[in-house]
Amino acid sequence: MLRRTKTAHLLVLCLLFSVLSFAATATNSATEPEISFDQDDGIHTTSFLNLSGDSTVPLTSVEITVWNISQPDQWALITSSPYLDQVVPYTDQVTDLTRWSWEHTFSLDSIDCTCYIEISLLEQTDLVSFGLIAYIGDDHHRPVLRHALDIGSSQMYSTKIFNDNSLDLSFNYLLPPSQIESFDANEQILSNVRICPAPFGICSESYRSLDSTDVTLDNILAIEVDADAQSIQDGYYLLQVQIQDLYLTLSNNITQFVVVDQSKPVVNLSAVDEVIESALILVDIDVDDGYEGSAYTITWSITEPDGTPRAVLESEILEDNRLVFEPTKAGEYRVNALVRDIGGHLVTVNHNVSVRNVVPIIEIRFDGFLVENGSTVTIPSSGNWTFSANTSFDTSNDQDTLEYTWFVDGKTLLSGKSFLASNDLQQTNYREIRVQVTDDDGQSSELYFQVAQQDELDSDSNSGSILASTVSLLFIFSIAALVYMRQRKQSESNTGFAKWTERGKGPKN
Asked: What gap in Å lies between CA 406 and CA 128, rounded to an integer?
């Protein structure tokens, strides 16, 4: 039993050790790789070059190379090695992380050069290298111009942006050993600054030299160029810097990609001035920063009619310079755009759009027939019936929020329902029904109609029939009287005519 317990404890310890080892390896692998040299830049040696340093990553797959850079912008391979002479891991007492110390020696007999020693990590996805400048032998030494040592490698090759007329650049430089002791801090290192427009990353014109102000202090060269004085307009440029030592020996070239952006962009925002509710509002913005290849960012916002600002939705941005949105309320909307160019200049523009509300349109139907405003509708005195306003319509944003109010003989009867049924009415005698439809902006439409019940129409019809019968009888009686009178008159006329004829039969003389 005791043996089993010891075995279990041993397994637990092994597992714990494996986990801790994995965690330590993961921590080290997550560390940014860095290889340092114990020697200073500009070391001077002959015959043998002894190098040493530390590393934050294992040095299992490296290459160390010596390059001859005695000629400006020309590298020639002198020697290389696929491994280091010695690599020893150790634990950093401060961080408690594993580090590796390394050593390597090159035999460089009969070599005179300005050299660059480079260590490359071959296991990295992107080739990562670290280097050191060394002066070997006594001849072919020249000054070396380098990016400022206090910036990272990613910043060395990034674009520098200048938003005023002063182009300030700083570099580190190394002088050959023979000049270090004789160099006076008050003496100026001669610089040659050249520039060319490069809107697409390559020079579109030849380089031209610039006048500059140089300041040298503790191996740091500060260069200042007045863009206005040198007639440098806003745009993209390639800037080349090279120095000369006291013996007019040229250093290497450093080429820097720069952007000069002193002016605010000209921004125009255009959109319609007025639309109806639910109609899409399209907003376009035009930005001109004055030079080819300029770039900018736009931050959109919309101020609602009640004064509440809101950010735009991703679906409302059609392109970088185009916005579309659907207003949901009547009133005045303000579209705001904040434009920032490469130089950091900010321009704010806005545009007001008036959104006009559409009054709802009422439709009342009874038994499928459309009820006209002011018309009379006959309803049965018994049974069920319904007046429906479901087909009333408004703009899409108001359609689902329409409010219905029904009035009977001028009094409010029902609210909130889009139809009026027979069982909604308690009274039996009513003459007029009116319906009011109101949208969410408070605007409304009304429609009224008269109501006649079927039994009232029947009594009215009977009364009309009696009246018609009476009139008909009177008419017949009148006709009969006229006929009788006419016949009587005609009879009398016939009697007179006979007497006149008989008198005519007697002699005339």
From this structure: 81
Largest CA distance in the chain: 194
Neighbours of 320 (CB within 10 A): 12
Can you name the residues that pair with 447 across neighbouring β-strands? Answer: 435
Determine the Cα–Cα distance for residues 247 and 388; give it in Å rounded to an integer: 103
Q: Tens of pLDDT along 444-473?
A: 889 989 888 866 544 454 555 566 667 777
- Tell me, what's the pLDDT at 343? 92
pLDDT in tens, 487-498: 766 665 555 544
Nearest to 263 by CA among 298, 296, 224: 296
Structure-token pair, residue 338: 């904040």
Q: Give residue 472's region: left, alpha or beta (phi > 0; psi -120 to 50).
A: alpha
- Give pLDDT tens digits for 329-379: 889 999 999 999 999 999 999 999 999 888 888 888 988 888 888 888 888
Report CA-CA distances (Å) from 400 to 55, 326, 355, 395.
Answer: 70, 16, 19, 9
Distance in angstroms (rounded) separating the CA atoms of residues 220 and 146: 10
For residue 142, which of 56, 73, 69 has the smallest C-alpha distance?
69
Do 233 and 291 contact (CB within 8 A), yes or no?
Answer: yes
- The whole-angstrom distance between residue 149's C-alpha and the CA centroid of its chain comes to 38
- Which residue ranges of the chain lie beneath pLDDT 50? 1-30, 457-459, 461, 497-509
Q: Residue 467's pLDDT is what?
A: 66
Contact present, 338 and 299 (Cβ < 8 Å):
yes
Q: Give the whole-angstrom CA distance, residue 293 versus residue 271.
A: 26
The pLDDT value given to residue 423: 81
Q: How far does the chain reach from its first CA to its final CA, in angstroms?
A: 188
Pair of tokens at residue 289:
């920063």
DSSP structure string for 87-128: EEEEE-TTT--EEEEEEEEEEETT--EEEEEEEEETTSSS-E
Report the C-alpha gap between 414 and 154 in whole angstroms.
74
Q: How far, in Å, CA of 199 to CA of 293, rounded?
A: 6
Contact (CB, 8 A) for 349 and 269: yes
What is the distance between the alpha carbons of residues 408 and 448, in angstroms, rounded to a whole number? Answer: 10
Q: What are phi and psi of 73, to 5 degrees?
A: 65, 20
